[in-house]
Amino acid sequence: MSNHPEPPIGDEADLIRSAQAGDRSAFATIVDRYWERLYRWLCRLTRDASTAEDITQETFLKAFAAIQRFQAGSNLKAWLFRIAHNSFVNQRRAIKNNRKPLVPEIAEDPKNPVGEALTKEAMLLIAEAVAKLPSDFRGALVLRIDERLSFRDIAEVMGITEETARWRVFKARQKLMGLLSPDLLPAKNEPMSS
To answer: What does the DSSP 8-state code read for residue 58?
Structure first.
């Protein structure tokens, strides 16, 4: 548990101003608020918990160094995810052909009735299918589904247009259905009778 009490949500602008004024505890509160979300997203992108932790740490170090340049009224969450995405891209460029297997994730708290009805096995299949998506599609989909970011914010995070963000999420869902359908649809063993 953090030693920094979390301020009310409306106080984020004050928190940013305090951090910009050099208040390290205000920045620590920002870290407390966003660490887990960034880390989870990066785990899915990198497929490696240790690498995700390194990039998460690097993200907050970069954010701390750049907090003075953060524009008032901008979306802090999108700004942090943008820094994390850039760090991920730089890391990926630096370490080519470093593909580690994903430990399949099980959805911790499905938020819809369909998710509640899925079996543990189906959830594992979905996690594995998401892991097989190209990282650009996977990253956009996870930002949309898990982080509930708008297409505009996804575009800002990933350095793409809003239209491209929409397309990537659409294509990710389309590819996901293509990967899942053989496993989740009934087998076609019997000919259909008319």
So the answer is: H
Residue 171 domain boundaries: 112-184
CA distance 75 to 156: 10
User: Distance between alpha carbon 194 and the CA centroid of its chain, in Å?
Assistant: 46
Instruction: Note whether 143 and 149 are within 8 A (CB).
Output: yes
Question: How far apart (Å, rounded) are the C-alpha atoms in residues 131 and 8?
Answer: 35
Tell me how far apart the alpha carbons of residues 36 and 146 are, in angstroms, rounded to a whole number: 12
100-124 pLDDT per residue, tens: 333 333 333 344 444 444 455 556 6
Same domain, 70 and 10: yes
Residues 87 and 24 in one domain: yes
The model's pTM is: 0.55
Residues 23 and 53 in one domain: yes
